[in-house]
Design brief:
The protein has 444 residues and is mainly α. The protein contains 19 helices and no strands.
């Protein structure tokens, strides 16, 4: 099947079950613009309050650190662009893949994975905390757009195909593997990876209807596209941010390779040896746009860095596209009919770039100290809100507290509230509730 033919058959490859919503919605008025079901999904993400909050949530460095560095929203927009372009090239629906990318970080609490670890520790009796499971909860419950016949929120009421594409870890906490390694922001993985809380299993079951019984944990192709786009964006853009921040010098990177390879094995890939990593880096340095001089802040240097970013994204996505087409010639790359194929060499190249950022940016002493203060702040805030109950919560979370059947439900209401906060609002809430009159922790 040619690429053009794939493009022409986007909508034909998705059936009524893929476009189904949990709550049936009446047709839009006749004078409204005509949009497909998947276009409506994308619009709902763009207009969601949870999406806007990402602008004030930590990506790698805090959103107040610098005007240039990424925050969760700009990162999500970049992942969405990569995801859409790759989906279009492969032939799966670009709106589905883009919406999944826009949604993929919605569940992140204040201070990113660092905050996630704190909420996991404090929410064990309520079923734990995980950013991807929180994303599903936001999409299907917390982000108010549609209610059912009983007046209960069903969140954004996205289509089955889009909701499934947003699910990176399609299993419950009890089925999760033990955590290992580190996150892209440098914090150790202490939270098991799962995609649904126990009390959200009913909507998860509806969403996963039609998934082959032989592969119950399989991501949809669109979710795999989103997942790869996230990895590509992390690897390339974190290096770009590090260069502009003065922490990474690409022109002298080969001189630091021994220390960097130790971090690569420690954090991401313990099985990669020096010879392979040396070879991979040598290949990357041979990319025509790789800088031969130190970054000096000039427009010319910034333009060259942007060209490198574009070339690397194209390199990784092009390799994946070619490998996937070779493996699935003539097979629709839609939902659960096929899988994305990431060549081992491409995975190694992405891992090398992640290791560069990890060693030269994430392991900096000032950042490690800040992360400790952030964890203390969130832990104190959760403790105070659990003690105060609904009087300390915003209306929708106070309602959840009052309607909860047990302590686990009340704890979940507090965790949902804290997870919804931005970095800045978490600091403000902490100052108001925990230390009135005191200055906030420095840098938090």
């Amino acid at each position: 099947m040619t690429t053009d033919a794939r493009h022409d058959s986007w909508d034909e490859l998705y059936d009524d079950a893929d476009r189904a919503r949990r709550v049936l919605e009446p047709p839009k008025r006749v004078d409204a613009p005509v949009r497909t079901a998947f276009e409506r999904d994308r619009a709902r993400l763009v207009h969601a309050a949870s999406t806007r909050r990402l602008a004030a949530k930590t990506q790698v460095m805090g959103p107040q650190a610098d005007d240039f560095v990424r925050n969760r929203l700009t990162h999500s927009l970049e992942v969405a662009q990569v995801s859409r372009d790759l989906a279009r090239a492969l032939g799966c629906h670009p709106d589905v893949a883009e919406t999944a990318a826009l949604a993929h970080d919605l569940g992140h609490p204040p201070f990113g994975h660092n905050g996630e670890a704190v909420l996991e520790q404090l929410s064990g009796p309520a079923g734990g905390f995980e950013g991807n499971a929180q994303t599903l909860r936001i999409l299907t419950r917390l982000e108010a757009k549609t209610v059912d016949a009983d007046g209960t929120s069903v969140g954004l009421n996205l289509t089955r195909a889009t909701l499934d594409a947003c699910t990176k870890y399609p299993w419950v906490r009890a089925d999760a593997a033990p955590p290992s390694g580190v996150h892209g922001d440098g914090s150790p993985r202490v939270v098991v990876k799962f995609g649904v809380y126990d009390d959200d299993v009913p909507v998860f079951g509806w969403m996963r209807e039609g998934v082959p019984a032989a592969t119950p944990r399989r991501q949809s192709v669109e979710a795999q596209v989103m997942d790869l786009a996230d990895d590509v964006a992390y690897s390339v853009h974190d290096v770009e941010d590090g260069v502009v921040a003065g922490r990474i010098d690409l022109s002298t990177l080969v001189d630091q390779r021994a220390e960097i390879w130790a971090t690569v094995r420690d954090w991401y890939a313990p099985g990669l040896d020096d010879a392979l990593l040396d070879d991979v880096l040598d290949d990357l340095v041979r990319v025509g746009s790789w800088p031969r001089a130190s970054y000096d802040g000039s427009r010319a240097a910034l333009a060259a860095l942007k060209n490198l970013t574009s070339d690397l994204v194209g390199r990784f996505c092009g390799a994946v596209q070619a490998a996937t087409f070779a493996a699935y010639d003539g097979v629709p790359l839609v939902r659960h009919r096929s899988d994305l194929v990431v060549p081992e060499r491409t995975w190694a190249e992405i891992t090398v770039l992640k290791g560069v950022a990890a060693h030269l940016v994430m392991r900096a002493d000032d950042r490690v100290a800040l992360m400790g203060r952030q964890r203390e702040l969130l832990a104190e805030l959760v403790t105070v809100l659990l003690d105060r109950g609904p009087d300390g919560l915003e209306r929708q979370f106070a309602d959840d507290w009052r309607s909860a059947a047990d302590d686990a439900g009340r704890t979940r209401a507090v965790i949902d509230q804290v997870a919804s906060l931005t970095d800045a609002s978490a600091v403000a809430w902490h100052g108001r509730l925990c230390r009135p009159g005191a200055a906030p922790p420095s840098g938090a």
